[in-house]
Amino acid sequence: MWELVRTVAGQGPVPWYYGAAAALLSAGVLLGFASAFAGLASFVERRIAARMMSRVGPNRVGPQGLFQFMADGIKLITKEDLFPEGHDPILFRIAPYFVFAGMLGTFVALPFSARLIAADLNVGVLYVVAITSLVVVGIILGGWSSNSKWALFGGLRSAAQIVSYEIPVGMAILCVVLLTGGLSTQSIIAAQGGMPWNWFACHSPFAAMAFVVYLIAALAEGNRTPFDLPEAESELVAGYCTEYSGFRFVVFFFAEWANLWIMSAIATVCFLGGWRIPLVSVAETYAHGYWVALGCLVFAGKTLALVFVVIQVRWTLPRLRLDQMMAVCWKYLIPIAFVAVLGTMTWMVLLPWDSALGKALRGVVFLATLGLLGHLARRTVATYRADAAHYSRMAGQSLWYAPWRLP
Amino acid sequence: MRLYFNRIARSASATLEGLAVTLSWVFRRPCTVQWPDKIDKPLEETLPERFRGILEVEVRVCTGCQACERTCPIGCILVRTERNAQTKERFITGFAIDAAKCMYCGLCVEACPTGAIRHTTQFAGATTDLGRLVLRYVPEGTRVVPYKPSAEPPAGLAPRGSLAAAHLRQCFPDTKEGAR
Questions:
Q1: Cβ-contact B119, B164 below 8 angstroms
Q2: What is the pTM (predicted TM-score) of this model?
Q3: Which three-class secondary structure state does DSSP give residue B130?
Q4: A390 CB near a chain B CB, below 8 Å?
């Protein structure tokens, strides 16, 4: 964005209104992207969840149910804005803004491609981790000001959870920062290679551990199942947003869906090589528009693959109990994250990035990851095959129904 | 210490196995039946024979005994009969079933000596006006001679379901179901 301002303003001092216009423009674009993604993600998640439960999902509103999220949004916006008895008038109103600001503020430092970034802050990931914490402020305020025990429990659980899981997230990102030597998101991506074995996730077993720790902790920070205790339906009605209705409720859920992109995008930036295209250098990517566009597609592809995994995990694992959730964080993730940081440091000292052994071991980690994915695919085929013959004998038709085939 | 690492290994392998199971379901055929528009033939035709749907009456085999009316636990059946004082002839002048009240218990079907009242496979009864759900199998102002059980059953009785379907079509002219 700053490059754009420079191009328009030319050399020399930049008038303040250029900066203001650029900020407004990028805010509008990011808000549009976040809304579109949040809406479509809710539709896609409902579809995927439905297929995993042998249903078909929303398919009535618009072509193939694509406009279901618009219908839901319009319904919620036209609803009455209710206030519970005894609520705190200021805090109750202000809480959604915190959640919203914490979510949208993160997009500022998230790149989409080589040039496509609102502001390449030199404290990029630190800023991201810091501003994500605004969400917990909003959640606590919402829970406290609702004057409802469910909302208060939800808010407190969320606070305990997010504050605890910030530590493994920070430690995992610290590994990446150590490897890069910088905090800016673009520099983290530029330090990685285009090929999968040059991604930070494959740098060493310790970096791979950091990646897994980050994924688990990011799930918890985003209040996604299996860590959705703050809004556990069966226990707390809807947690901190129990008493919210209408547009304020939309804001909470909007932030939650947009967070799906945020957590996956940070993982892509830090561990999966961001927008790096195989065999194309960073300088070349910056130089040509078509590489920038392709980089954008690469980045979106990696992020959406992670989004699918996050959605799938939600419909695979049951919710953790509160003490289990805390045990996972303090007894497992944090020690593992410390080991990952120390291990990464040692690895960096002993095996520099360009050393032959370092390259070979990166390849080994990559092959191990491939082996894990192969195991997953093998088990998937095995579970499918276990039922396919019975099904076709009983139902008289094949069990196969491609995921892209529409109902 | 071994327990600690065992737990990590167990949870990791269990999660991986769970992911494999859910992923395999993405490729399986959903078992949803998409009523009413994405099925080969109307659901009414594929429902089992003993399905207890909306009641219908074939008045041509009705004896006018009112056993169904008496046995109905909610009183949603009304049978009106008249008697000509001179000729001692009985007529059925009204047979109405309030499908909105009916709870589909089937006691009237059990009680009917001739099988005139029967369940159908019709079930779609959405309407904007509850009054439309009163199904009048003997129209106002007509008199039906009761059926004598000793007589031969009349030829060309209406197939099961057709009478109720005709009524439901008239009752819901403004719905998609009625149009179909």
A1: no
A2: 0.81
A3: helix
A4: no
Rounded CA-CA distance A200/A187 in Å is: 13
Residue B177's pLDDT is what? Answer: 47
Residue positions counted in chain B? 180
Residues with Cβ within 8 Å of residue A4, at least 6 apart in sequence: A22
The interface predicted TM-score of the complex, written ipTM, equals 0.80
Measure the CA–CA gap between A210 and B120, rounded to whole angstroms. 64
Q: Hey, is the C-beta of A400 within 8 angstroms of any chain B C-beta?
A: yes
Question: A318 at the B interface (CB within 8 A)?
Answer: no
Give A344-369 pLDDT, tens digit per residue. Answer: 999 888 888 888 888 888 888 899 99
State the Cα–Cα distance between residues B144 and B134, nearest whole angstrom: 19
Inter-chain contact A391–B29, Cβ cutoff 8 Å?
Answer: yes
- Write out chain B's pLDDT in tens, 180 residues: 889 899 999 989 999 999 999 999 888 888 887 777 778 788 888 888 888 988 988 888 888 888 999 999 999 999 988 888 888 888 888 899 998 899 999 999 999 988 889 898 888 877 777 888 888 888 888 888 888 888 777 777 888 888 888 877 776 665 554 444
For all residues of chain A together, what is the average pLDDT? 85
Length of chain A: 407
- A239-271 per-residue burial string, b: 16 or more CB within 10 A, e: under 16: bbbbbbbeebbbbbbbbbbbbbbbbbbbbbbbb
**Confidence at residue A211, expressed as pLDDT on a 0 to 100 scale:** 92
A8's CB contacts (< 8 A; 6+ apart) are A18
- Rounded Cα distance, B46 and B64, in Å: 32
In tens, the pLDDT along A243-256 reads 888 888 888 888 88
Nearest chain A residue to B37, by CA: A60
B14, closest residue in chain A (CA to CA): A317
> Who among A382, A395, A402 is closest to B27 (CB)?
A402
**Alpha helix segments (H runs only) across A182-280:** 185-191, 205-221, 233-236, 246-271
